[in-house]
Specification:
The chain is built from 9 helices and 11 strands. The chain is an alpha/beta fold.
């Protein structure tokens, strides 16, 4: 498995991808017993990928807020950022996979509480990455000295990406705390409307929405014989025209490297200058 993962990461970087992400899940996703398929722990895998690459951004798409105490999570992401020379970022969301929470002994509180914990975690991240190691006392978390040494390489802090498209809570948190958002949608019209909601939240908090990188996930397989390359190009270009800066996708049979090579040879060159970029997700 190590050799396969190294091959994926190195081939993706050579092909011209801008970012590589892994899912932060302890079980594989799928129906029935599919969860028993191999699944690597996200931050260990990202450290391995960092050592085999030099240019691509690295992060989890996305970390579930309940999986790690905030101080430990921020220390992990800081370490990734340092060892990758500024490429590591924090991707985070409110979490949803109740089965794996219960299986690994992780609390799974109500949606309301998970979002409250998410906001506290974001506040802690901003404080710690600003260099402020003063005590933090919130409703759920208390940190006596969130001191980070060595500090992150990225300035003013590692990129913070919030995943999810909820209009009242998630997109409000993006406006307040994030450098990037990530929406999964098959309907670009609906995606445009979500971006309008984000702009409204930004206006409410006095923030320029242009500061936020808009990313979306597109579920579209590229045929390994290249027969639907133009369809893939058109779909990704449409996402750019809809207002997204970066497009992510889970490539089929990624370990064979064929899809990565097709993107590098055909898709990425065609999208140059369009405004959307393709991104492989290695664990999906």
């Amino acid at each position: 498995m190590a050799d396969h993962l190294a091959g994926v990461a190195e081939s993706a970087e050579a092909a011209g991808f801008d970012q590589i992400t892994v899912m932060d899940h302890y079980f594989a996703l799928g129906p029935g017993d599919a969860y028993r398929a191999p699944m690597l722990e996200a931050y260990t895998a990202l450290g391995f990928i960092a050592a085999r690459t030099s240019r691509m951004r690295l992060g989890a798409m996305v970390t579930g807020v309940m999986y790690r105490y905030p101080g430990i999570l921020i220390k992990q992401v800081t370490t990734l950022n340092v060892l990758s020379k500024g490429r590591g970022f924090l991707g985070i969301g409110a979490a949803w996979h109740e089965h794996e929470h219960r299986a690994f002994g992780v609390p799974f509180p109500s949606v309301k509480e998970r979002f409250e914990r998410l906001e506290e975690t974001l506040r802690i991240a901003h404080q710690a990455w600003s260099g402020d190691a003063q005590p933090f006392h919130g409703k759920y978390y208390s940190l006596e000295e969130p001191y980070l040494s060595p500090p992150a390489v990225s300035k003013p802090r590692p990129r913070i990406l919030i995943g999810g498209s909820g209009e009242r809570k998630t997109l409000r948190l993006v406006a307040q705390y994030a450098d990037a958002c990530h929406l999964n949608t098959s309907d670009l019209g609906e995606a445009r409307r979500k971006l309008d909601v984000l702009r409204a939240h930004c206006a409410d908090v006095g923030r320029n929405d242009g500061e936020i990188e808009k990313t979306c996930g597109v579920r579209m397989d590229i045929a390994t014989d290249g027969s639907n390359v133009q369809e893939v190009i058109d779909r990704f270009a449409a996402a750019g025209e809809a207002g997204f800066d970066l497009v992510t996708t889970a490539l089929p049979q990624v370990y064979t490297l064929e899809a990565i090579h097709l993107f590098g040879d055909k898709v990425i060159p065609a999208l140059s200058g369009v405004g959307s970029k393709a991104v492989p997700v290695t664990q999906d």
